[in-house]
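Priority: medium. Attachment 1 of 2:
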């Protein structure tokens, strides 16, 4: 029965992942001044698939405990997934580099808090989140550097905004 809890957690991660699929880098991103240590495009789906599986598994390990902090841990989990889901639309969709930096910085903090809360509940769940936190640490540095190198990069003008079909 505990395995049934994993399915909605995986679905939630897939929903967050969908924003990355909907708001892809495209020519605008390719044209930005990026550092040499920017990862190759093929790495992102590989890394994120692995990370989302680990994120869902960590939440499942917490959700199947009766620990008094489990609710807090799962609330932090939901918060980080929400922040995760909105970063791609803000960065790639709206092209708001500074706002995206704020979103990902807050995400970094929430993941750190989640690891701290998860650790006394289930050490394995906390350790499953460490690679995610490291990846987001790298992403914060990358977002910061791209923002610094492209200070005049304007968001989409009203005429470039996506139209409802």
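Attachment 2 of 2:
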């Amino acid at each position: 029965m505990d395995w049934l809890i994993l399915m909605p957690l995986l679905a939630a991660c897939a929903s967050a992942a969908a924003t990355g699929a909907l708001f892809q880098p495209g020519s605008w991103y390719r044209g930005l001044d990026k550092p040499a240590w920017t990862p190759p495009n093929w790495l992102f789906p590989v890394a994120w698939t692995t990370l989302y599986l680990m994120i869902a598994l960590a939440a499942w390990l917490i959700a199947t405990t009766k620990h008094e902090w489990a609710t807090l841990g799962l609330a932090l989990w939901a918060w980080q997934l929400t922040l995760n889901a909105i970063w791609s639309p803000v960065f790639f969709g709206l092209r708001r580099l500074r706002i995206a930096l704020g979103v990902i910085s807050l995400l970094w903090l929430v993941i750190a808090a989640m690891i701290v809360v998860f650790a006394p509940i289930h050490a394995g769940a906390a350790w499953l989140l460490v690679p995610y936190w490291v990846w987001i640490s790298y992403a914060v540095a990358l977002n910061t550097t791209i923002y610094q190198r492209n200070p005049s990069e304007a968001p989409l003008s009203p005429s470039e905004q996506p139209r409802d079909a």
